[in-house]
UniProtKB/TrEMBL annotation:
It is an enzyme of class 3 (hydrolase). This is adenosine deaminase. The lineage of its organism: Eukaryota, Sar, Alveolata, Colpodellida, Vitrellaceae. One of its GO terms (biological process) is hypoxanthine salvage. Its cofactor is Zn(2+). Keywords: Hydrolase, Metal-binding, Purine salvage, Zinc. GO terms for cellular component: cytosol; external side of plasma membrane.
Length: 350
């Protein structure tokens, strides 16, 4: 594992709420004296299931289980700091971390979280945790604001307005939730003035996927919404014409193989089209998505992809170089990272 930790990396797709250390979740869980709906449930398995889930919505329901802990600003400062620390220790040189204000500050509040923090309180705490980690560790971190379509139009509008007000604190905007909602979401987020990535080409239960045209969501995100990056896009599959279409538009796919298996988007690691994408020169990058749910950190993901799909050190470095070019952070924050990637690539090629 040391070899994979040492390799410099760029990671662009990781959800703060889905990357919380299990030990931190358990600390707050016990602090608040909480219990699961199932009193017999093994707590580790409750938050980090040891096997893939049937679909994306089942995965997201596990993701949402820690929402009951969102009670103190200190929780958000701590988890932001710890995620950056974990990534830095795994060799990540530049990280884009995303979170959903509407998920962290639910409105209306659910019975399990009667007094959520405000959007500003959460952002302030997250930004503080990131600042502290950047001072202590060798890592550049950008923050993406995520709008969740399944929470409804008012929520998406509120998130978009919040992102626009705090444009100086976010490097990009993400739209996630249901891929079926992209058409109505787009008018609500288009005026924000931040670069856009969109979760799509992932959900096998979306209307388009059920009708055998999952790629339409990817086309819509790129063509209509102007997304330069796609969150997942794995359902593009081994479609040469679609890969060429994406290449012509210089689109980057933010892939997360373990997560794609966990959400049922692919049947197995071996069935994942990542090697096909690489062979066709498609710009892709390797990410964890939700390591707090899958239990797989980025160095573990690299080791697993090397062992099971034969992805080499040089392949990984080239994906990080593509990721760096696609990163929403300003160029002056990329220079040092690029030098390290180039240096490691020269060494990997001998
Ligand atoms: Zn994601």
């Amino acid at each position: 594992m040391d070899q994979w930790k040492a390799l410099p990396k760029v990671e662009l797709h990781c959800h703060l709420e889905g990357a919380v250390r299990l030990s931190t979740i358990l600390h707050y869980w016990h602090k608040y004296g909480l219990q699961t709906e199932d009193h017999e449930a093994d707590l580790k398995d409750y938050f980090q299931p040891s096997r893939p889930l049937p679909n994306l919505s089942a995965f997201l329901s596990v993701f949402g289980r820690s929402q009951v802990l969102y009670r103190e600003a200190e929780f958000f400062r701590r988890i932001a700091y710890e995620v950056c620390e974990d990534k830095a220790r795994d060799g990540v040189q530049l990280l884009e971390l995303r979170y959903a204000p509407a998920h962290c500050s639910p409105d209306p509040p659910p019975a399990s979280l009667p007094h959520p923090l405000s959007y500003d309180e959460v952002l302030g705490a997250v930004a503080e945790g990131i600042r502290e980690a950047e001072k202590k560790f060798d890592i550049e971190v950008g923050l993406i604001c995520l709008a969740v379509s399944t929470l409804g139009a008012d929520s998406v509008k509120k998130t978009a307005e919040f992102a626009a007000i705090h444009r100086d604190m976010f490097c990009g905007l993400d739209v996630a939730g249901s891929e079926d909602d992209l058409e109505w979401c787009w008018p609500l987020v288009k005026g924000v003035g931040l670069p856009l990535t969109v979760h799509c080409g992932q959900d096998i239960c979306s209307r388009a996927a059920m009708e055998g045209r999952a790629k339409d969501n990817v086309r819509f995100a790129v063509e209509q919404m102007g997304a330069t990056r796609i969150g997942h896009g794995v359902l593009v599959g081994r479609d040469e014409a679609m890969v060429e279409w994406l290449n012509e538009r210089d689109v980057l796919l933010e892939l997360s193989v373990t997560s794609n298996v966990f959400t049922g988007a692919v049947k197995s690691v071996e069935a994942h089209p990542l090697p096909f994408f690489l062979s066709k020169g498609l710009r892709v990058c390797v990410n964890t998505d939700d390591p707090g749910v899958t239990g797989s950190g980025i160095a573990e993901e690299y080791a697993m992809l090397n062992a099971r799909l034969g992805i080499s050190e040089a392949d990984f470095l080239l994906t990080s170089i593509d990721a760096l070019r696609g990163s929403f952070l300003p160029d002056d924050r990329k220079v040092r990272v690029r030098e390290r990637l180039d240096c490691a690539l020269a060494a990997a090629r001998g």
